[in-house]
Structure prediction request, 115 residues.
Amino acid sequence: MSELGILLDARSVHPGLSARNNLLALARTAGIGRRRVDEVIELAGLAEVAGTRAGGFSLGMGQRLGVAAALLGRPQTVVLAKLGLRDRVQAVVLAYESGLITPGTPPPDGPGQPH
Prediction:
């Protein structure tokens, strides 16, 4: 989780658990503490609904929960699949606001990029 954070499907959460408990369960499997769970809840704008069952979330709120899950391990790279353009822009704004990326940060070297 520290190398790669992925959001493949916003609905891949346990619908009977709250947003916080979904994130806590994921964090436990990766050895991540409660403090980080609270941080990503704030970053993703989930503070007001953290105790709400995820099964009742709108698609947009489910995507916020997915973004929070992807950010749990402070990954170097985040992949946001199945998000619309507006949601991707919001995710990038979250990343800037949280200090995960800063203006002028070059993208990581990848296939097909000059070295």
About this structure: Residues 110-115 have pLDDT under 50 and may be disordered.
